[in-house]
Design goal:
The structure is a homodimer.
Chain A lengths: L1 E11 L16 H12 E2 L2 E2 L3 E9 L5 E6 L10 H12 L8 E4 L2 E4 L3 H9 L3 E11 L9 E6 L6 H10 E6 L7 H14 L3
Helix pairs in contact in A: 1-5, 3-4
């Protein structure tokens, strides 16, 4: 199982945004949407062995986490607008303490970044994707892997502190500084090549 | 210099489409837009050493080629909607025999796939990206490289025949079949790693 945790530092949690304005009004939700695309899409199928956690930290209803579960997903299309619509639909659901299902394979909860990490650390190895890490091509990878990354902003000092409690390694993907969705594409390819 | 040539088999050439409907009404223009994103964007900059050719073959005004020139580009944002707007703007310009400039770094012409390949073959090595090619990690790469790929559809037999006249090699990017924009991300990373 591959898991990706992406922090949307300003991403809206209320669902009160226009589909024409996912960059501005929705707090760079476009970045997270492209991460969903990179995580799941192959040419003729969806990766069923992937799970994505979008940690939304913007707006009055923060934090919320949207979980995409590959083996249950339906109605996911590669364009940004349709994924924005699925996320908005999830944010408009009433959610109390427990995670609820918004649509097939898409869940919403009030969990914070720290709560998600505590849950995930029980079932796999947490890896932080950052420019100054070890080259992923030189690192041994096995088992269930959880990759953590930021949106268009780096993790804050406090987020890095929380992550450092759980993460075993910091990995980089090459000599340049890549967009988050491009990072996910590169990780997926590396794991495909290793048959993981 | 890195160049990417992507064929949009049904992509609209008239500019007569809505920005809310780049998948359907614009003939899967969304695929090409994501390719532009992957080709140019780094975290805090645009790749100036990249040129992209979108070969649009759909609609009543086909063929048209939109050329994105990295070292002149301005007003390019990573979200799909804003790039769709730049492309529509280019398609709405009146273009006769000669290529014209639609906006900074974006040019439109009536050139066909074959004409573009003939031009490009003079100045670099043409490489075809396809699942059954040689693994890019095992191939020596140098000089000016031109990567050719399809949109959500493979190249037709006729397009493959035209390409075979000019291409030196067919390359693959891993054991899975990837979306075109993900292929471009993987190529850029491989070239970054080699300092090309």
């Amino acid at each position: 199982m591959r898991r990706f945790v992406i922090i949307g530092h300003r991403a809206d949690t209320t669902g009160n945004f226009k589909l024409d304005d996912v960059c501005g009004g929705a707090g760079r939700l476009d970045v997270l949407i492209r991460c969903v695309n990179s995580a799941f899409f192959l040419s003729h199928s969806i990766r069923r062995d992937v799970e994505v956690f979008l940690i939304l930290q913007g707006g009055e209803d923060a934090p919320k986490t949207i979980r995409f579960c590959g083996d249950e997903l339906r109605y996911l299309n590669p364009d940004e607008r349709s994924t924005a619509s699925l996320i908005r639909n999830a944010l408009l659901k009433k959610v109390a303490e427990k995670e609820i299902r918004a649509s097939p394979g898409i869940y919403v909860s009030r969990k914070s970044f720290e709560e998600i990490l505590v849950d995930l650390a029980k079932g796999g190895e947490l890896l932080y994707l950052k420019e100054n890490g070890k080259d992923i091509r030189d690192v041994r990878l096995e088992g269930d892997l959880i990759f953590v990354l930021g949106d268009d902003r780096d993790l804050s000092k406090e987020e890095e502190r929380i992550l450092s409690v759980h993460a075993s390694e910091t990995l980089s993907l090459g000599p340049a500084s890549y967009h988050s969705d491009h990072c996910i594409t590169l990780v997926n390819n590396e794991l495909d090549r290793r048959g993981l």
